[in-house]
Amino acid sequence: MEKTVLNLKYSFLHESQMISLYKIFSRKAAQEGYNLISNFFEDISNNKQQNAYWTYMMLQKLDHLQNIEESSVKFEDIPSVGTTSENLTTAVKIEDYEWRIMYDDFANTAREEGFDEIASRLQLISDRERKFFERFKIFSSLFSDKKLMRNQSIVVWECQGCGFQIAKETLPEDWVCPSCGHLKSYFEKKFLNYATGDRNLWICMECGEEVNMENLPRDWKCPNCGRPNEYFRRKKSDNVKDNIFSLPKSEWECMECGNTAIAMDELPDDWKCINCGASKSYFRRISSKPSKTTYSIKRREKAMWYCPSCGKEVEIDLPPNWKCPSCGFSVY
Question: For residue 15, is it within any domain?
């Protein structure tokens, strides 16, 4: 148990440090004019807050078994801040270590010490870190190829099975997802123009191949079926996503205790609330914005009242003459 406590403490301190470091990297990228990379660093920093929260809550669960204040861990060295290119390389190394070594080892240790629930949670963090690593690899590769400095579009393929992304113009017919094993048919093609955000999509009426160019050359031929440019027509691009590297934003709320788990498209089948231990069936997907309704069930036999004037929320049975204690608004 002592190893698991030390690992969770180290993880909490490590994630807290990475949250701040990535925000600094974000500011550096913005100063150098790479707004997309700046937003990406900020996005990863915000998602790492969930990892820090989970490790903290897991530590609290072990507090009744061992006084966690008796053990201590050392702070790790702080990576240097360099150029955006150097910061991307640093981030790739950090994420590679986290998903492939750090959290995998921590999960195995927890399992050996009999903490299966903690091991499952740590393995889930490892899976999340792998996705961070994959996205950083794409950005670092595009930066090294100087594609982030030229006014050109980037083609990214995303696996609809697991979310794996790869930046390639075309995928071979025998392509298999290196993450989950799905075939090429499971991959969705997306475009991103780093310089201007403009999208000029052309679609081949013969085979459905899409390309992103302002104008097609006269000698253009479809890279998939070989048809000339006469077979291409412009395509409306309303459904093309700009922020293709962003992570899931779905929020889930535990109907037993009100705890939320953020940034997950779907909860694992063996999911349990980190706060009360309720199973996946107790969770519901919630909107990122508060509802404008005046009443909703949040916990068993308790009512949640929401003030549409100031946003104040209370969990009580409201009398007929009740007024919001924050702004004085009355719902009657």
Answer: yes
pTM above 0.85, yes or no: no
Strand 201-204 with 302-306, pairing? unpaired
**329 membership: H or E segment, kind and range:** none
| Six-digit token string for 212 | 């992103």
* Residue 58 within any structural domain of the chain: yes
CATH classification of the domain holding 272: 2.20.28
Using DSSP's 3-state secondary structure scheme, residue 23 falls into helix
Q: List the structure tokens of 195.
A: 């310089």
CATH number at residue 42: 1.20.1260.10
pLDDT tens-place values along the chain, 332 residues long: 689 989 999 999 999 999 999 999 999 998 888 877 888 899 899 889 889 999 999 988 887 665 655 666 666 778 889 999 999 999 999 999 999 999 999 999 999 999 998 999 999 999 889 888 988 888 888 888 776 654 456 778 888 877 788 888 788 889 998 888 888 888 888 766 544 444 567 888 888 777 766 678 888 888 778 888 888 887 654 444 445 555 555 678 888 888 776 667 677 888 888 888 888 888 887 755 443 333 232 333 345 565 666 656 665 555 666 666 666 666 44
Please, which residues have CB within 8 angstroms of residue 5's CB and are 6 or more apart in sequence? 59, 62, 66, 68, 71
Domain span holding position 208 = 153-235
SS3 275: coil
